[in-house]
Structures are given as structure tokens and as C-alpha cells.
UniProtKB/TrEMBL annotation:
Protein origin, superkingdom: Eukaryota
Protein name listed in UniProt: U6 snRNA-associated Sm-like protein LSm8
Gene name linked to the record: LSM8
Family, as annotated: Belongs to the TRAPP small subunits family. BET3 subfamily. Belongs to the snRNP Sm proteins family.
Organism: Intoshia linei
SUPFAM superfamilies, per database record: Ligand-binding domain in the NO signalling and Golgi transport, Sm-like ribonucleoproteins
UniProt subunit comment: LSm subunits form a heteromer with a doughnut shape.
PROSITE patterns: SM (PS52002)
Keyword terms of this UniProt record: mRNA processing, mRNA splicing, Nucleus, Ribonucleoprotein, RNA-binding, Spliceosome
One example of a Gene Ontology biological process annotation: mRNA splicing, via spliceosome
Pfam families given in the database record: LSM, TRAPP
CDD domains: LSm8
Function of the protein: Plays role in pre-mRNA splicing as component of the U4/U6-U5 tri-snRNP complex that is involved in spliceosome assembly, and as component of the precatalytic spliceosome (spliceosome B complex). The heptameric LSM2-8 complex binds specifically to the 3'-terminal U-tract of U6 snRNA.
Length: 218
């Protein structure tokens, strides 16, 4: 991303943050962690019962891990849009369980594709234990840049992977209000493992425990 940002310096950009804010300003600088400094910044706030508000923020720092989308704004096109006619409409409530199931299903598709590429030059696994060892070592490195902290197995049917610093949630605060965010990443990862094992010929059920983040037990 840093290479792309170099072309945007001094230009007006829009940023959608991971926590749902819509910010606009002139890009003044950034660092190797993609932390961004905007000038003349303002936030567009949309509501279901009032017109769009522009909240002036001035010089503003945005953390790189909170940037979901960034791009240059065509100011002429932007000025031609009548934002006062735009409103927010509430979406139907999505239950935690149904959303977790969707993430798990999506993770299965991702896991199947990733493991197919990862094992194409490897010999066939002798048993399920070898498959799970591969998941906890080489495959985990491909996903998160490191091995799991601990792998235990009671038998050929039950295994437990412990990652003491589960990378997707390592920057999420440990509090009850962030529990759902942590569950989303864990559900997706469980899906990846299920999909990988299924591609290797093993039907599995993968679940997680995240009582003490960033530790994750799978």
C-alpha cells in the first residue's frame, strides 16, 4: 500500500475506516506502518433522520490498521453530487450465529484453495496426525507468519491448536464490547482449517475458544 500512497501525497483522498467512518482530506504523509496524516480533514456523517453532516477535524492522524479503503477523490465529480438527498437506512439485524456460519463457510472455500497450492509438491500424508501437524506448522506460517504455540492431540480424532498471539486479533482490545469482532476472525480461521482438511480428504468440525485474547484455542 505504501507504494500506492506515494502517488497520492498532496492529493485529496477519501478513507473508509474499519470502524465505519468516512473521512476526506489532503494526504500530507505516511509511515512504514501506513499510519496516515490528513490535512483539512472532515468526516461525512450520514443519518436516517437528518441531512448529511460535515464535521471538521483539521489535521488528523489515522492508524494504518484502521484503514479499510483509501483512494483519490475526483473533486469535480464529488461537488456534482447532492449529498443532502442521501440517507442511511438500517439493515435487518444479523444474528451472531448466522454471521459466524457465513464466515466459516467462506473460510472453507479459502482454505480449500490455499491448501491445494500448499501441498502440490508434498508427498501424501500418512495419517490425520500428519495433516494436522502440517496445518499447525507450514500452513499456519502461510496464513499468519508463524507456527502455532502448542499442538496437542488426545487421539486421531481430537486435536487442539493453541496460538498465544493470534495475529488477526492481536491489535483488538480485550473487552466484552470487542468479543464479536474477535469471534469473526476465529470463525473465519476455523472455516479455513475445515476447508483445508476437507480438501485433504478429512471431514472435520472445527471450533474455537477465545476467552483470553489474543490467545486463541482451536
Amino acid at each position: 500500500m505504501a507504494t500506492c500512497l506515494e502517488e497520492l501525497v498532496s492529493k485529496t483522498v477519501s478513507i473508509i475506516t474499519a470502524d465505519g467512518r468516512y473521512l476526506i482530506g489532503k494526504l500530507r504523509g505516511y509511515d512504514q506502518l501506513v499510519n496516515i496524516i490528513l490535512d483539512e480533514t472532515y468526516e461525512r456523517v450520514f443519518s436516517s433522520n437528518s441531512v448529511m453532516e460535515k464535521v471538521a477535524l483539521g489535521l488528523y492522524l489515522i492508524r494504518g490498521d484502521n484503514i479499510a479503503v483509501i483512494g483519490e477523490i475526483d473533486e469535480a465529480v464529488d461537488r456534482s453530487i447532492n449529498y443532502e438527498n442521501l440517507r442511511c437506512e438500517p439493515l435487518n439485524h444479523i444474528t451472531d450465529n448466522s454471521f459466524d456460519c457465513n464466515l466459516t463457510a467462506f473460510g472453507e472455500k479459502v482454505g480449500a484453495v490455499l491448501v491445494e497450492k500448499a501441498v502440490e509438491r508434498l508427498p501424501r500424508f500418512a495419517n490425520v496426525s500428519d495433516m494436522v501437524c502440517f496445518i499447525s506448522e507450514d500452513f499456519w506460517i502461510d496464513l499468519y507468519g508463524k507456527n502455532v504455540t502448542l499442538l496437542t492431540g488426545q487421539n486421531e480424532e481430537h486435536f487442539q491448536l493453541k496460538d498465544s498471539s493470534f495475529l488477526p486479533v492481536i491489535n483488538i482490545s480485550n473487552g466484552p464490547q470487542f468479543k464479536y469482532e474477535i469471534h469473526k476472525y476465529a470463525s473465519f480461521t476455523c472455516g479455513i482449517i475445515q476447508g483445508a482438511l476437507k480438501m485433504l480428504g478429512v471431514n472435520s468440525y472445527v471450533t474455537f475458544i477465545t476467552d483470553n485474547p489474543p490467545c486463541c484455542i482451536i
